[in-house]
Each structure stands twice: as structure tokens, then as C-alpha cells.
């Protein structure tokens, strides 16, 4: 652990940026989940300090996840909050066990085009969701990421909502001034300046936003923003007051089967969202470090067990915070730990100061994070890779925009698998075909590749069916180390009909069906 402290100069400023992004998200997700706001802060603290300490990831940040809002809200309504906490505790135990049996390997089977589509979609959603906040409409929770919003609007119609309300000129001024400063801070002029480049733009924007609103209060009260448009952190007068807010699970409902249904659902969805986020963050890591996904599941499991024990919400690795962490130049997992500590300190030491921050300033930060996730160069790069990668990428984006993260990724994965199967069916990459003239007759040699899987079955069948009538054919498995039984059946089925088509067939180094059975 101590080796990570050498990056303090990079990690601590980055943690401030993540803290500023995470704080309203923790509160917003709690509100959207119909849970106490304190529960969101509590899970943010645990996600930062506990999961951050146990995780092997260098850049991911954990906390309450927007992708679980619908499941959590329904579970709280059905079970009651204390029984819901029991489900969170059991879900954490299931995650820990999944890590022990090495179930994290599933994260390696998601095509990169789908992962990049997920990141791009989150970027688009961040931009669309933050438009309303930067124009001063703060009726929807900041952490709400679903297509259908709590107020009955959806992602697209919600963008129109600010213009149907009285104009908040103060929010617009603060939001666009802060956005302009962030754009300037991402310019070469600032990046090449040895002094300015050391100041995190997001931190500067938050200070500027709070300062502008204070200025408006003194010289232009009509522009000043009220409490409804500022961050709203609960205030605690003492440690006893804090402890009184903690809640424990209702263990008397251990026999309720609904608890286990919710626990299994939470464990599977949270694990999948974590694995997707970890895979995405590893792809963006400039040092290309790889995270042990089984260790991550164990860390998330411990975090969720603790969160359920003290009254928090379910925790996952969160791509929005992780991306903010990466963009802020964090170098190690200490940034995630520091951000958790900062949430704890903020709750006790300076809630009044945090509550001076305008939501419009935070919206400007998230708009920039969103743009970097979905910038045009990403679309161009995917398009240049070909339709078999661009279509799953695009479908994933559209599906997520009109549903939610996990449904969208599932649809993108199905489309990606279709293209994989299509490629295996049409492209005979598992063998080389040679045609030579010997004594005036055509000889076709089919050399099987090193590994012939069931995915090659359709392609192999198609090409054997299309061999010319009366030809001489050699099927050579000299270089084949592993051949699937289904493919072997295709070859020997062809042996049975070769005479009928007057095909002279020779098998070289092809194992018999009987030898396969003996294995």
C-alpha cells in the first residue's frame, strides 16, 4: 500500500475532482432510488475507502451506481429498507464467492467495439442529462441515468424541460462561464504552461461557480441561485448524530425468498456492471495496466457486505467517476481512497462550504467528461475498422440511449456475436485451399488450422458441400492441435457421401471418431 503514496502529487488533486463529481452523484442516486440521501454518501465512502483499498485496479472508482437505480427502488418498495439491506449484504457475499470461484473471466469475453460503444453512450447520456442542469433545471437527480426520468420525461424530452420553466439567468451564466474555463484548461496553452497545468480545471471551476454565486448575492440578487440549485449535503452536528443515521439489516427476514431473489439480481447486475467498467477503464489506462477481475469481485463483495450492514446502497465500479479520475491524471488507486476520505470529511467538517457549490458548475464538469468519452475521433476510428466492428459499436450506443446500461450492452453483445458467427461462417480462415494440376486432374488440399472449434462447423460444412463433383480432395490436419467433435462429425459425414459425388477423398492426420470418444 505504501508504494502508492509516491504518487500523492498526482493522486490527491485527482481525488478532489472525483470527490466533486461523486458527491452530487451519491446524493442523486440515493434520491432516484427512493433511499435516504445519507445512504448514498455512506456507500460512496465505503466504495472509496474499503473497495479502493482492496481493489487491484489502479484507476477505477466505486460507489452507488446509476445502473442499479430501478432495481433498488423496486426492491425498497417491495421489501422495506431494512430488509433490502439484508439483500445487499447477501448480494455482497455472493459477489465474494463469485470472485473465489474465478467467475470474473466473463469480463474478457466482451468485444472491444461493445465496450467502446458503452463508453461513447455514457458520454452522450452525460451530455444530454447535464444540459438541463447547466440551464438551471435541477428537478431530476444528478445521478439519474435511465432513459425514462422520474418526472415523466425521457432523456430527449428532458432536454427541452429547462426551456419550459422560468429562465434562470444566473445558472446559465455560471454554467457557461465554467464550461468555457474548462475548454480553455484543455487547450495547448494551459497544458504547456508549467504552472497552470498543475491546477485541476475542475477544482478551479467549482471555486469559480461558488464565487460567482456569492457575487450575485451581493450585487445582483436576481441572478443568485437558491438552495434548490446548489449541492445539498446533510449536516451532522456530532459523531452521535452520524451514528444515529446508520441502519442495520433485518435478519428476521432471512427466510423470505424475495430477499434472495433481490440479492441474486443485485449480485449479478452489480458484478456485470463492475466487470464492464473495469474492462473499459483498463482500455483507457495510459499505462495499459490490467486489473484482476476476480480480485475486483471479491473487493466489491466485501464493500457490499459492509454497505448492507450499516445502511448503504449497493456498490459497483462506476465508469463516470473512473473516467473523471483518469482525466484528472490519477496514477494509482490512492486517488479513489482519498476521494472516499474527502466525502467523510466533507460530511463532518465543511458541509456548509460544499453546499455553496452550484449544480451548474458540476454540470459543466460532467459535460466535459461526456465529450471526452464520445468525441468524434472515436466514431471515426471505429468506422475505419470496418462494418463488423462499427455496427456493434453503433447499436450499443443506440440501445443504451433508449434503455439502460446493461440492456444496451446485452443488445450490443448479441449483435457483436452475430458478426463473429457470420465471419466464421463466411470466411474460411481455419484452412488454406490449394488447387494444383496433377496428370490433368484437379487436387484440392484443405489444411485445417491449429484450432478448429464449433464456430467453424458451419463454414466447414458449406465448403465441403461446394466441392466440385468428381474432384480429388485431401483434408490435412497436420497442424491441428485441437478439433471440436462437431467438426469431426462433419468431416466423417462427408466421407460417407464422397463416393456418391465421385470425389476421391484422402484424410491425413485426422483423428477417428473412436479415438475422440476414448479421450
- What is the share of helical residues? 55-70%
The count of strands amounts to 8
Strand order of the largest sheet: 3-4-6-8
SS-based class: alpha/beta
Give average pLDDT, whole number: 86
Q: Assign an overall shape.
A: elongated
- Our measurement of the CA-to-CA distance between the termini, rounded to an integer number of angstroms, reads 48 Å
The H-and-E topology, N to C, reads as: HHEHHHHHHHHHEHHHHHHHEEEHEEHEH
Total of domains: 2
**Count of runs of 4 or more consecutive helical residues:** 21
Mind telling me the C-alpha Rg? 28 Å
What is this structure's SSE topology?
Layout: H1 8-32, H2 37-54, E1 61-64, H3 69-79, H4 81-100, H5 112-134, H6 169-185, H7 188-191, H8 201-219, H9 239-244, H10 257-284, H11 293-310, E2 315-318, H12 319-327, H13 334-348, H14 351-354, H15 359-373, H16 376-384, H17 387-401, H18 405-426, E3 431-438, E4 441-448, E5 451-452, H19 457-465, E6 472-476, E7 482-483, H20 485-498, E8 504-508, H21 513-518
Helix pairs in contact: 1-2, 1-12, 1-13, 2-11, 2-13, 3-4, 3-10, 4-10, 4-11, 5-15, 5-17, 5-18, 6-8, 6-15, 8-15, 10-11, 10-12, 12-15, 16-17, 17-18, 19-20
Structure description:
This protein is of the alpha/beta class. It folds into two domains: 11-399, no CATH class; 431-518, Transcription Regulator spoIIAA (2-Layer Sandwich), CATH 3.30.750.24. The protein is 59% helix and 7% strand. It is built from 21 helices and eight strands. It has helices at residues 8-32, 37-54, 69-79, 81-100, 112-134, 169-185, 188-191, 201-219, 239-244, 257-284, 293-310, 319-327, 334-348, 351-354, 359-373, 376-384, 387-401, 405-426, 457-465, 485-498, 513-518, and strands spanning 61-64, 315-318, 431-438, 441-448, 451-452, 472-476, 482-483, 504-508. The strands form three sheets. A four-stranded mixed sheet has the order 3-4-6-8, with no helix packed on it. It has a two-stranded antiparallel ribbon with strand order 1-2. A hairpin with a 2-residue loop joins strand 3 (431-438) and strand 4 (441-448). Helix 3 (69-79) packs antiparallel against helix 10. The radius of gyration is 28 Å and the shape is elongated. The two termini are 48 Å apart.
Amino acid at each position: 500500500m505504501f508504494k502508492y503514496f509516491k504518487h500523492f502529487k498526482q493522486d490527491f488533486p485527482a481525488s478532489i475532482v472525483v470527490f466533486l463529481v461523486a458527491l452530487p452523484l451519491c446524493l442523486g442516486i440515493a434520491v432516484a432510488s427512493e433511499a435516504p440521501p445519507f445512504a448514498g454518501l455512506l456507500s460512496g465512502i465505503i466504495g472509496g475507502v474499503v473497495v479502493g483499498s482492496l481493489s487491484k485496479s489502479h484507476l477505477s472508482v466505486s460507489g452507488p451506481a446509476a445502473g442499479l437505480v430501478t432495481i433498488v427502488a423496486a426492491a425498497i418498495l417491495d421489501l422495506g429498507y431494512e430488509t433490502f439491506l439484508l439483500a445487499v449484504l447477501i448480494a455482497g457475499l455472493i459477489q465474494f464467492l463469485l470472485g473465489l470461484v474465478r467467475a470474473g473471466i466473463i469480463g474478457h469475453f466482451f468485444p472491444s467495439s461493445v465496450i467502446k460503444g458503452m463508453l461513447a453512450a455514457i458520454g452522450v447520456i452525460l451530455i444530454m442529462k447535464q444540459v438541463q442542469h447547466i440551464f438551471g433545471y435541477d428537478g431530476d437527480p444528478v445521478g439519474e441515468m435511465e432513459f425514462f426520468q422520474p418526472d415523466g420525461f425521457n432523456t430527449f424530452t428532458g432536454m427541452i424541460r429547462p426551456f419550459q420553466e422560468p429562465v434562470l439567468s444566473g445558472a446559465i451564466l455560471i454554467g457557461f462561464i465554467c464550461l468555457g474555463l474548462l475548454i480553455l484548461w484543455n487547450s495547448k496553452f494551459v497544458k504547456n504552461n508549467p504552472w497552470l497545468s498543475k491546477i485541476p480545471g475542475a477544482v478551479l471551476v467549482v471555486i469559480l461557480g461558488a464565487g460567482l454565486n456569492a457575487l450575485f448575492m451581493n450585487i445582483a440578487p436576481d441572478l443568485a441561485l437558491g438552495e434548490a440549485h446548489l449541492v445539498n449535503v446533510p449536516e451532522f452536528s456530532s459523531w452521535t448524530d452520524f451514528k444515529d443515521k446508520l441502519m442495520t439489516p433485518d435478519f428476521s427476514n432471512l427466510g423470505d425468498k424475495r430477499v434472495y431473489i433481490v440479492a441474486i439480481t443485485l449480485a449479478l447486475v452489480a458484478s456485470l456492471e463492475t466487470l464492464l467498467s473495469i474492462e473499459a477503464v483498463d482500455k483507457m489506462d495510459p499505462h495499459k495496466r490490467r486489473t484482476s477481475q476476480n480480485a475486483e469481485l471479491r473487493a466489491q463483495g466485501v464493500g457490499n457486505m459492509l454497505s448492507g450492514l450499516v445502511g448503504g446502497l449497493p456498490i459497483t465500479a462506476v465508469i463516470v467517476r473512473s473516467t473523471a479520475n483518469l482525466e484528472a491524471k490519477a496514477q494509482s488507486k490512492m486517488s479513489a481512497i482519498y476521494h472516499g476520505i474527502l466525502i467523510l470529511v466533507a460530511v463532518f467538517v465543511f458541509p456548509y462550504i460544499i453546499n455553496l457549490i452550484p449544480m451548474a458548475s458540476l454540470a459543466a464538469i460532467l459535460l466535459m467528461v461526456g465529450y471526452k468519452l464520445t468525441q468524434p475521433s472515436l466514431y471515426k476510428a471505429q468506422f475505419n475498422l470496418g462494418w463488423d466492428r462499427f455496427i456493434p459499436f453503433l447499436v450499443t450506443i443506440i440501445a443504451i440511449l433508449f434503455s439502460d446500461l446493461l440492456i444496451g450492452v446485452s443488445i450490443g453483445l448479441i449483435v457483436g456475436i452475430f458478426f463473429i458467427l457470420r465471419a466464421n461462417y463466411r470466411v474460411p480462415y481455419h484452412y488454406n485451399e490449394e488447387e494444383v494440376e496433377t496428370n490433368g486432374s484437379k487436387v484440392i488440399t484443405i489444411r485445417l488450422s491449429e484450432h478448429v472449434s464449433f464456430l467453424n462447423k458451419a463454414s466447414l460444412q458449406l465448403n465441403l458441400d461446394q466441392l466440385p463433383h468428381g474432384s480429388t480432395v485431401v483434408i490435412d490436419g497436420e497442424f491441428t492441435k485441437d478439433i471440436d467433435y462437431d467438426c469431426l462429425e462433419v468431416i466423417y459425414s462427408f466421407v460417407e457421401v464422397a463416393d456418391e459425388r465421385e470425389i476421391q477423398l484422402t484424410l491425413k492426420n485426422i483423428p477417428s471418431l473412436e479415438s475422440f470418444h476414448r479421450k
